[in-house]
Amino acid sequence: MCRKTSKDMRWHKERDATKTYRVNDCDRIIDDDALSREEEDDTFLEDENAIPGPTSPGINMHVYLQPLIEELKELWDVGVKTYDAYSKTNFILRASLLWTINDFPAYADFSGWSTKGYYACPCCHKETKRTSLMHKGGYLGHRRWLPINHKWRNDANSFDGKIEKDVAPVPLSGDDVLQHYSRFSQVKYGKIVGNKRKRDASNSLFGWKKKSIFFTLPYWRKLKILHNLDVMHIEKNVSDNILGTLMSIQGKNKDTLKARLDLVKMKIRDKLHPKVLDGKVRVPIAIYTLRSDAKVAICRMLAKMKSPNGYLSNISRCVKDNGKKISCLKSHDHHVFIEQLLPLALRGFLPKEVYDPLIELSFFFRDLCYKNISVGQLEELEKKIPYTLCKLEMIFPPAFFDVMVHLVVHLATEAKTVGPVRYRWMYPIERYLRTLKSYIRNRAHPEGCIAKGYLADECLTFCSRYMSDIDTKFNRKVRNDDEDIEEDTIKSNLEVFRPLGQTIGGSTPKHLDHLECDQIHFYILQNYDPLLKFVQKHKLELEKECPRNVERKHKEQFSKWIQNQVQKIYKLGCCDKDLYNLVCGPSRVVGHHTAYIVNGFRFHTSDRSENRETQNSGVMVRGDPGENHVFVFKCSWFDVENLGRGYKVDEHGLISVNKNRLLKSDDVFVLESQVEQVFYIEDENNEN
Questions:
Q1: 8 Å CB contact between 41 and 97
Q2: What pLDDT digit, counting tens, does each position of 418-432 carry?
Q3: pTM
């Protein structure tokens, strides 16, 4: 292990014990009692055997886990003698397994709890409520999370035809799991030759199909979360259900004839029951089914959409069937769709009672996936999500609520216990599996290829930790790198003359007219913090002369006035030369760039973005809108001063701007430090 990594690993031991430390800007505080061992290391262990397939071990996964469990026991009980490259001493290294990260089918293989059938929810365990349907089953009963006196608990007709009196189930603790284990015998690991193993009362209980081997670890029973629910796949499945049902996509639609017959069987929602007319079965159109023109408009919006570089894949390729069907979306596409695009795509096409709960669900996922989120915010999400799911229960058929939709109710509770979801979902694991697959050169021996490629990668990784003067995976630049600025090229000490970003490609000379030159000069002077005292002084002088039209006079006279003021100070030797050059104004011949990287964003001019598949020309500024160089952006501003005519804000906070109304303003230039990136999507409901 290299010296730098060793230094970072000593933080827990050498930190100031009198201080508290916040984790990911959350409200939870780490104290000394939270660490049961002084010298521990967090690392990721990946088991490729968990990948589903015809040769996947499935329930026999524990056969392959036994060597790992033995090593984990040794790391916890005895420890391993390790060399510290930073202090150049030996010490005993101890380690523990924090939790497992897996998709939902692998959840069953690791935990031993079946994720199919009547007890498919491992969080609700034996209290899972499953409604038998003609096609599989529906997991309803979200009214259990409502207050005990809520009116929806007694509203049987709007839900599943039953009055709800039960309360929300409490997840099993480690001791509860062991108590269940004592009530059945463990099945023998490995595959049985001959007759297939049968489950009965002696070797199973509720949803348990085996005893988890992880409980042989001495600390496993004390952990609050043993196996994580994967938000990545839950988002994807929920998004699939919504898209398939709203757009009636074959194979994805949950509103089928069987789903309508389930309503007949449950004696609810008479208006949606199939009817026989003229010898044919007629299925009434539901309020959540989109019209043909709405489907075309949504597909057209996605087909024409351009997103910033690196934000999203080319989603227009997923529009099929002559612009009437959306399919083949990747997991990250579903992630962006359900959190960002769903409210925009459905606005104006669905009734309010359908649109509102879908937007609430979209905002839930968006807030849940924040990198920094407080416990208070998670508690608010935990309270709101049962209401959202209950609203959806009153609208969509029971077949819509498969187990993946039901698991949404547990996500905020789990995040409140163990932290933000972005550190516990499957995205990095799926990407790493793609890397392992790329090692395969001989398809007859894929395992050998992966092992050989992995070993070579580990050797190169170890060597690269000692190479700081060349590009490696540890010092590789990010996609939109704006920090590689050579200090030798900066000739001024003024902050305004120090570039924050990097240009892409060369520049072309451009001649500014007098108006543009004055606009740039005034904006820089007005927004440069060291000159704020001069701005206030000039406005006070104008107010003393005449209190009328102070802002207009200030804009017209300030550049000349401050030039005279700084010139007097400069002649006395009390002013920096660079500051004097700043107030004297810019050159009329400037360099024009079509691309610039700053603040982690890649910006293109509108002309450069016109023929590209990406849109990088959107600029947002928060608030009111020689030798030295200042980079500025020239922008055309939408009219955000006139609410109703220039822009609109709906009840959900979604903003629409009128693309035909531009703001009439002289402030068309902004500094590079002020810009953030946005992108625009055409509203198919309103052509403007």
A1: no
A2: 999 988 999 999 999
A3: 0.84
